[in-house]
Amino acid sequence: ANREYHVSRQLGLLASAFAAFCLILVGEDLLQFFEASGNAYATLLLLSAGHVLFVGAGLHSVHLSMSGNLKLTMLLQLCGFAVFLSLLFIFVPSHGALGAAGAFLATNVLLSLTGIWALWRTSKIKVLDPLTALTLIGLSLPIVAIGINPEYRSIGSIVMILVLTAVAVSERNLLLAIFKEIRRQVFSKRA
């Protein structure tokens, strides 16, 4: 179970961080295409950072549910929803969509931390070692910083590239095995 959890977490983290990096690069142009205005770019990046954190912490809710901890999963999700609603009532009136994105980010941080704790408590799966924590911070903090101040785009992008490269290099065997399996699946269906 520990291996499967780690594999899905790493793949999700790489994919979501890469998608967030692409949004950093072309997000403003994409939003202009859809005629978005105001603080749409900052909102988009805060939502992306929340997603990177949540996926990078792992799909703990799914794992907890599949391992017979449905009541705990439901309790964590209900508490997270209550926190989210509370934060929406606090931040949306004064900050609009940006406040909603901030509420989403804060709720995902809370759900990730409580989910990591619950997973460790019930299954003894240790998700948040120091390297994983640094990786999550190194990928999400630049996204938030760029969302707050787009002038950080260059340095934030460099930090994300460095962290993504380090993760990809450290997980190269896993990534190669996945690509080989995908290639095998694609070419075996053609035959």
Quick overview of this protein structure:
The chain has helices at residues 2-33, 40-57, 60-66, 70-123, 130-148, 153-170, 172-190. The protein is an all-alpha fold and 191 residues long.
Could you explain the architecture of this structure?
With 191 residues, the protein is mainly alpha-helical. It has helices at 2-33, 40-57, 60-66, 70-123, 130-148, 153-170, 172-190. The longest helix has 54 residues, at 70-123. It is globular and about 45 Å long. The model has no long low-confidence stretch (mean pLDDT 88).
Keywords:
7 helices, mainly alpha, 191 residues, 0% strand
Percent range of helical residues:
over 70%
User: Radius of gyration over alpha carbons?
Assistant: 18 Å
Strand content: under 5%
Spell out the helices and strands N to C: HHHHHHH
Major sheet details:
none
How far apart lie the N and C ends?
34 Å
Uncertain runs are: none
Per the principal axes of the C-alpha atoms, what is the gross shape? globular
**What is the oligomeric state here?**
single chain
> How many beta-strand segments?
0
Number of helices: 7
Task: Look at the helices and sheets and give the structural class.
Answer: mainly alpha
Overall mean confidence score, pLDDT: 88
